[in-house]
Amino acid sequence: MGGPARVRLSDVAARAGVSLGTVSNVLNHPERVAAATRELVLGAIGELGFVPNQSARVLTGATSNVIALVVLDVMSPFFMEAAHAVERLARETGHVVMLSNSQNDRDMEAELLSVLGGQRVRGVVLVPAAGDDDVASRIRGKLPVVLMDHEGVDDCCSVAVDDVAGAGLAVDHLLGLGHRRLGFVGGPRDLRQMSQRALGMRTALEAAGLDPGTSLVEAYVETGMGIQAGMEAADRLLMEGLPTGIVCGNDMLAFGVYRTLSRAGIAVPGDVALIGYDDIDVAADWIVPLTSVRQPTQEMGYRAAQLLLEDTSDPAHVHQHVRLQPELVVRSSCGAR
């Protein structure tokens, strides 16, 4: 006895009341179809359980409806928020997202790009692994790529946040509270986000007439950017002479710093003012609500995916380098001096 009949493209067209060409465009070139019509066709696809044959799409040279997203750490709340934004754009345009984790490793990143190329994905939204001096060579001649959370190179579009300005906001706030000896806690030193935020602190101190050589101590952890890394960095600061104000490269690092300081009997904000970066959801509800530099994460992810679709659908597309602006969200962890 045979199984249920395979749903055909013509069945979807009949259910949606559109032509076969329109259904094909929704699957292969969704940006060419009006949003209302696209939703009608996608609804019919869902109702009928139609499954596009991806292998056939590759063999016929049809444009893939898969957007690949490669991030440094799939456990990071920041990258997951950005991923949700990429997925939102994908749903709106009839695409799906394939999420991969480079673990901040350039060799793994290269392997992923190679595998994704074989899968004939539409393109890649990529957060590059540490060591950004050769990003252009790492992506040249491969898939269409949009860099996310990273400044642009000539070969592709990019969407990033001005990290120098963001760290400057944190420094100005601490200086305004009377702090004169600051600390920076970062993950891998050669990760662009960390190096730019440290640069922002040094630049802001110089602008205030202070010498970063004596006013700033930096502690990096090359093996991670989570709570454990923050705890390790705080241990170093305790040994070297604790600053009165600390800015961290992300909120997870700040949570680790807080944990170490608390165990050492050092109060936040009573003894040390603490600022994170990213303003992830839990920052507002931390034991001591965390002051943090907020990134427009949703906008960054959505815009990166949007640029990728524009790049892969318009031969006249001109690469764009979008720089978004951060803001400082002040909470209890800084107190007042």
UniProtKB/TrEMBL annotation:
Pfam families documented for this protein: LacI (PF00356), Peripla_BP_3 (PF13377)
Annotated InterPro entries: HTH_LacI, LacI/GalR-like_sensor, Lambda_DNA-bd_dom_sf, Peripla_BP_I
Domain of life: Bacteria
UniProt KW keywords: DNA-binding, Transcription, Transcription regulation
UniProt domain HTH lacI-type: residue ranges: 7-61
Cleavable signal peptide: none
GO MF terms, alphabetically ordered: DNA-binding transcription factor activity; transcription cis-regulatory region binding
PANTHER family: HTH-TYPE TRANSCRIPTIONAL REGULATOR GALS, LACI-RELATED TRANSCRIPTIONAL REPRESSOR
Protein name: LacI family transcriptional regulator
